[in-house]
Structure formats: C-alpha cells, structure tokens
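Late entry, evening session. Most of the bench is empty. Finally got around to the prediction I had been postponing all week. Sequence below, unchanged from the version circulated by S.P.
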Amino acid sequence: MLEFNRILLATDFSAAATAALQYAAVLARLSHATLQVLHVIDTRVAAFSHWTGRAAGKVALQVAHGSLAPVLLVPAAYRDAEITATPPPSLPIQCILLAMHVVQYAPQAVTLSRAFALACNATLSVLQVLEPDKLRSYPLDAGAGLSHNLPGMQALMQQRLEDIVPDAPTGPAVERLVVIGTSSEVILQQTNERHVDLVIMSVHAYGGLQKFFTPSTVDAVLEQTPCPLLAVPFPPAW
C-alpha cells in the first residue's frame, strides 16, 4: 500500500506540467494524502525568458538531489498516460524498473517499488548493472579471485538481488536482472525495451557520498528517460 501523508506538487501551470498534476492527484487519492500545490515565481526566468527550459531542467535535478523525501519527476513530453483521478483512481503503470546497486542503495526505494507494483498490479523488474572496468569497486567479500571472474560476479550479484528483493507472499513476482554494461546506458536500454512506465532509483545529495549511482548516472537517466522517474534519497546518515 502506498503510504504518503503529504504530497507537494511543484508546477509552473504550463501544458507540459499537466501529467505531473494528474499523477499527484491520483497519488493523493490512493494514499489518502493531502495535496499541496506550489508555484514559484522565478524572477531570473522572467528576466531571461530564453532560459526557461534549461532552468526548469536544472531545478528538477537540484530538487531530485536535494530533497529528503522521494521526488517523482514526470517528463514534460510524457503524453502516453491515461490517468484516472476520479474513483476508482488509477495510474498507467504496468511495468516498474528498480535500478539499484546491491552494495549501496536506499532501502525506501525497495519498499516503494513493491508498494507501487502492488497498488498498480504492475510487474517489477530489479536491475543491477555490472560494469566490467569497476569490478574491484564491488566490496562483496567474495574473494580477490572473483574480481576477475565476470560470470562468477554475475552469479553473486544475482544472489544478492534475491536476498534484497525476495519474492513476497502477495503481489506480483519479481524479475531480477544482472546486465553487463554502463549504468546509464543499460538502464535506458532496459527502460525502452521493456516499455517501462516507472523507473525507481536511489539518489545521493549533491556534494554527498557519490560512489555508485553518482549524480551523472541519475542525471543521464533523468534527462533521457521516456517515462516518469522516482528519485529516492538515501537516509541522511549515508
């Protein structure tokens, strides 16, 4: 069950923000949450109108990396969704991709991915990207020899995914993927190939600890993903 108490919709009231408004309305109904709407009059954008699009994208990235609460970012060009806010409310989410790193991830990202999958009756795929040139950076206590054994590392990652996101007695089954490649490229490839409706990723604050899903990875996915992305912050102490 989705358990949001308060939802803040930040909007510029443009046509491009309509999908975000619809998502916020449905999430509020599904969670029985209060919905607050925020519109910021940015004098810099008013003074330099040709910066509007660039400024909006930069603000979205800053919020995603600075918020202590999960942030749902809906692409301005997202038009495929048929969202129903009237009873019974429903979101157009049939396929969810949780992109994570088994060594370090936000626990709330796992919880929210299950909650969204259950609420939307959606499939859930959990993705771990294995980058061959970074095998030594995976402190999995697997022995020094395994850092040179790609198939062995894949098998170990697969087992870790099963430990972190096991099948639950209720809800949809979990598909676990360990794919070799570059994080941002693989995440976007899987998003497109699987027709994903929601991507969920853990995100560090700017200037904080940046080891695995660094801002460049999250930002690259956010800038190119064809569907909404839920950025889930790490706990403050991480």
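Two things to note before I forget:
The mean pLDDT is 82.
The longest helix spans residues 52-66.
Will write this up properly tomorrow.
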